[in-house]
Automatic annotation (TrEMBL):
One of its GO terms (molecular function) is dihydroorotate dehydrogenase (quinone) activity. One of its GO terms (biological process) is 'de novo' pyrimidine nucleobase biosynthetic process. Its cofactor is FMN. Catalyzes the conversion of dihydroorotate to orotate with quinone as electron acceptor. This is Dihydroorotate dehydrogenase (quinone). PROSITE patterns: DHODEHASE_2.
Amino acid sequence: MKDIFIRNRNIVIGFIYRTILKRIFFAADPEDVHDAMTQVGVFLGNYAITRALTKSLFAYADPILEQNVAGIRFANPVGLAAGFDKDGVLTDIIGAVGFGFTEIGSITGNACKGNTRPRLWRMKKSKGLIVYYGLKNSGCAAIAHRLTQKQFRTPLGTSIAMTNDSTTATQEAGIADYAKAFSAFATIGDYFTINISCPNTCMGEPFVEPGALDALLTRIDAIQTKKPIFLKLSADLTDVQIDAIIVVAKQHRVHGFICTNLTKNRENKHIKDKNIPAYGGMSGKVVRDRSNIMIGHIYKKTNGAYCIIGCGGIFSAHDAYEKIKQGASLVQLITGMIFEGPQLIGEINQGLKTLLMRDGLTTITEATGVNHRAI
Ligand SMILES: Cc1cc2nc3c(=O)[nH]c(=O)nc-3n(C[C@H](O)[C@H](O)[C@H](O)COP(=O)(O)O)c2cc1C
């Protein structure tokens, strides 16, 4: 009965979103819409009554979706990816929208204005976004100060990156910048992500190189924290680069990988829009297949030893389930929610329950990596 009600609720809200709200939003500048929606989210998160109302409109819960990953209890496997809540102002409303966890940031050592606008575009035909923010955020000190005494309603990841300006020009300065942000969040939230894959910085992605990554992780190992650590990888890495990163990760305190960040590859066959900007990383359906391939590659290469968070182009429960079957324990999204509406989170969770039951599975853990092992 509850499931029938929620299915119909999601159909109605999704219809209203796609036929009315999305048309209004998509007629305006994407960054303006994002900033306005962030303000709405902050307001809704401030009061018990607005949180309860939001929950009744969007959330879906079922014990089959619960799991322990890297020592953290998740009510469901669908998280908000880094980049939507850069300054960690939405933590009170995320659970009510239906997410099982959230990742704030990416947060850098110093405050960072990011690249000049425009820096966000929609690829309407391809169902993706082009992102050229360049790590805009208020910096680790201000954000940590605001969040330090806060009780979070859902598990919280902190994505750490390197300040996007000339102060991080040398490897030493870059590592010091990561370490500064990492230390500021050592006791805040539930897990860390080290973002070594921002496609939009003036310094490029220097910590993809094994020697540099080894030096960075050696410095991170020295910082006291109980929180598990994930490495967020670019969608544009070759298998050789991925394998080299795994070798380095094995020597350090790394618990898992996030596959993937954005892609810069303009040759991608899923790009259907014409005249897109030559710079910036692409999200959504453009990156979906590459993300799935990388999840499978890492799962097989490490025999499932690492927790994988699958990210990129999730627009449905089937998309999320494919990432889980490839080897992901958790998934994250942004772009699907923007194109389909916030009811998508509940839809995915409900759909995952149906897919697990169809396949005779009783937990997400049983489905993780099932494409690569006999059950
Ligand atoms: C507007 C926007 C900003 C982003 N900023 C960040 C960021 O600061 N750090 C990061 O690790 N990933 C960032 N990403 C990448 C996302 O976390 C995610 O990896 C990517 O968008 C693929 O997921 P999706 O197809 O569900 O959007 C950003 C993505 C978008 C759309």
